[in-house]
């Protein structure tokens, strides 16, 4: 586990409150209490779960209540754990990023609402800086307006002091503010204590206060920088992310708009009253859509809600009165604001769109997937009619089915054995990685160009189907383990063990599937074993011959010695012209020849034969002893 986490770029921690991902082993005996304790911990709702289960129906059923992000089995651990940890970490980071973006959007909506409703500008600006400091966990947020002189600034609000206002400062001590005024762009100093924009005096001051990073955002009013939103990070906060800078830039622009003139507040209130008057003119639409099961909202040209039917209000955990006059984003809080706005913008241009999935979060905290459709509404006040229905459960089932399909495909492709399926016309519909390695074709080639007949020697495919339909070899529709051959792309015949079955749908044959185990290595091993057995038999024969030859030589030497001795004595007593001398001489010479044969028999060390009469074989003494000479 530690090695896989390290390869995935993750670190294993002991405290669950420090974790982002958790791998729970549901195969461990008595794991239930530990899993419950983990899920009910303070960090439990924020954890991304992976579950290790046993590869059987009971194992997969055990994860129903946990709803993990991903599951795996012990069989997949060596190959899949690192990959799945990486994917889970990516999904967790995406979810965290979405959550942070949602928090930023919520704060931005709150600030926008405060800008529209508050009449106390001083309290409003302090509230803005205080909320930014709290949400970003920074040391201080300050609003600085430019004074009458080029080097003079006025602090109008600070997050850490509600009474601080109208404090004049010398901009010569704030080069980051001067840079923002000069360029009109944000200035971010991640390593403030060493940043080249600051002088030696400013660097020492920053280091003494423990400030790690500084961000300065322009407040543009009528095309000119009239103020700066200044933020300083200290303590645990080390830097500002790109997302946070984008968010702060938006806040700065919204603040600049609110500060443009004192008449803005009155203008906003007037606009709200106008929106309410528009909503009253749409009462006929409300009556018409009151009993529609889908949510229906009527929007103005700026995506403000003029009317929301009861089904839509219930779906979004709000009321029609609460939604009226608010921006569509404010009541739906979409995770991807761009998708929703593109849908509404298309409708306002006269283009009808339908079936667009948008993930939203209701005020009650429910996360829903809504299938939305938008169309232009030809009316002097209304611009768009938006309908939506809750497809959360359907999309969840689709995701589960897709994940199951992906899992089964990976499982089939990871099999070493070849798995091949074909329809009743012989067209190949499944050809896994094992089949590619065994037959030499890619899956695409097999499915596009081949039939199952081409994967067997002539006539074998028909015989296999006949065996499948026969009750003799495993029952109807099933074929027990048999040895068969497949044809490789090169023409080589590949010996295999195979099992097969016919898949039925409604009692009718739908397709057949076979599983093939490559026996080439096994056949080669069997051949080697046969050769070894043959050599062993020859060795045993040689050992028997050598032992027999030694015994025979030993037993024959004694009588031959006696025969030769007596024959030699007789030759000495006889003269060459005696009648008996010649027979005795023949006996002596033949005994010597027999002694030479016995000597060769005693030197036999291997089994060598030669033809004798017909097909008969006898021992070849010369070859059997030649290596000794």
From TrEMBL:
Query: Locate the PAS domain: which residues?
Result: 404-469
Q: Which GO terms describe its molecular function?
A: phosphorelay sensor kinase activity
- Reactions that this protein is recorded to catalyse: ATP + protein L-histidine = ADP + protein N-phospho-L-histidine
Superkingdom: Bacteria
Instruction: Show the Pfam families listed in the entry.
Output: GAF_2, HisKA, PAS, PAS_4
E.C. number(s) listed in UniProt: 2.7.13.3
NCBIfam families named among the record's database cross-references: sensory_box
The family database entries (PANTHER family) matched by this protein are listed as: BIOFILM ARCHITECTURE MAINTENANCE PROTEIN MBAA, DIGUANYLATE CYCLASE DGCP
Q: What is the name of this protein?
A: histidine kinase
């Amino acid at each position: 586990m530690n090695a896989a986490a390290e390869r995935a770029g993750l670190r294993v921690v002991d405290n669950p409150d420090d974790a982002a991902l958790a791998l729970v082993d549901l195969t461990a005996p008595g794991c239930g209490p530990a899993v419950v304790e983990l899920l009910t911990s303070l960090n439990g709702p924020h954890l991304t779960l992976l579950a290790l289960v046993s590869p059987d129906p009971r194992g997969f059923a055990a994860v129903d209540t946990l709803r993990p992000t991903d599951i795996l089995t012990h069989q997949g651990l060596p190959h899949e754990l690192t990959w799945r940890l990486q994917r889970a970490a990516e999904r967790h980071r995406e979810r965290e990023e979405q959550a942070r973006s949602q928090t930023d959007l919520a704060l931005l909506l709150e600030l926008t609402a405060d800008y529209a409703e508050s009449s106390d500008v001083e309290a409003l600006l302090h509230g803005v800086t205080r909320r930014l400091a709290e949400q970003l966990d920074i040391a201080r947020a300050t609003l600085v307006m430019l004074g009458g002189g080029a080097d003079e600034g006025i602090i109008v609000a600070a997050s850490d002091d509600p009474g601080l206002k109208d404090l004049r400062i010398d901009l010569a001590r704030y080069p980051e503010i001067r840079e923002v005024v000069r360029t009109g762009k944000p200035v971010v100093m991640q390593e403030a204590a060493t940043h080249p924009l600051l002088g030696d005096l400013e660097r020492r001051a920053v280091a003494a206060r423990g400030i790690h990073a500084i961000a300065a955002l322009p407040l543009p009013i009528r095309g000119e920088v009239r103020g700066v939103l200044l933020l300083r990070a200290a303590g645990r906060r080390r830097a500002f992310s790109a997302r946070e800078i984008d968010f702060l830039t938006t806040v700065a622009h919204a603040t600049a708009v609110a500060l443009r003139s004192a008449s803005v507040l009155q203008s906003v209130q007037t606009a709200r009253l106008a929106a309410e008057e528009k909503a009253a003119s749409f009462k006929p639409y409300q009556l018409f859509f009151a009993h529609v099961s889908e949510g229906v909202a009527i929007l103005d040209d700026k995506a403000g809600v003029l009317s929301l039917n009861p089904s839509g209000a219930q779906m979004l955990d709000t009321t029609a009165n609460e939604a009226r006059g608010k921006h569509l984003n404010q009541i739906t809080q979409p995770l991807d604001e761009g998708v929703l706005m593109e849908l509404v913008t298309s409708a306002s241009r006269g283009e009808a769109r339908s079936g667009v999935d948008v993930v939203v979060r209701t005020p009650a905290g429910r996360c829903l997937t809504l299938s939305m459709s938008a169309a232009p509404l030809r009316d002097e006040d209304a611009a768009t009619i938006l309908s939506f229905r809750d497809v959360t459960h359907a999309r969840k089932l689709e995701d589960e089915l897709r994940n199951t399909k992906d899992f089964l495909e990976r499982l089939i492709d990871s099999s070493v054995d070849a798995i091949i399926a074909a329809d009743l016309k012989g067209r190949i519909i499944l050809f896994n990685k094992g089949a590619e390695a065994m037959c030499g074709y890619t899956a695409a080639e097999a499915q596009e160009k081949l039939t199952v007949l081409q994967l067997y020697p002539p006539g074998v495919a028909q015989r296999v189907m006949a065996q499948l339909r026969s009750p003799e070899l495993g029952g109807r529709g099933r074929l027990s383990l048999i040895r068969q051959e497949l044809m490789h792309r090169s023409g080589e015949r590949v010996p295999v063990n195979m099992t097969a079955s016919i898949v039925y749908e409604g009692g009718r044959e739908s397709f057949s599937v076979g599983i093939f185990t490559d026996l080439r290595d096994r056949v080669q091993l069997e051949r080697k074993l046969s050769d070894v057995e043959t050599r062993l038999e020859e060795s045993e024969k040689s050992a028997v011959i050598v032992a027999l030859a030694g015994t025979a030589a030993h037993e024959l030497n004694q009588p031959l010695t006696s025969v030769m001795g007596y024959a030699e004595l007789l030759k000495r007593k006889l003269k060459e012209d005696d009648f008996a001398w010649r027979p005795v001489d023949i006996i002596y010479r033949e005994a010597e020849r027999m002694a030479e044969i016995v000597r060769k028999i005693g030197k036999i060390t291997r089994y060598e034969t030669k033809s004798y009469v017909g097909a008969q074989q006898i021992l070849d003494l010369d070859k059997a002893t030649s290596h000794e000479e």
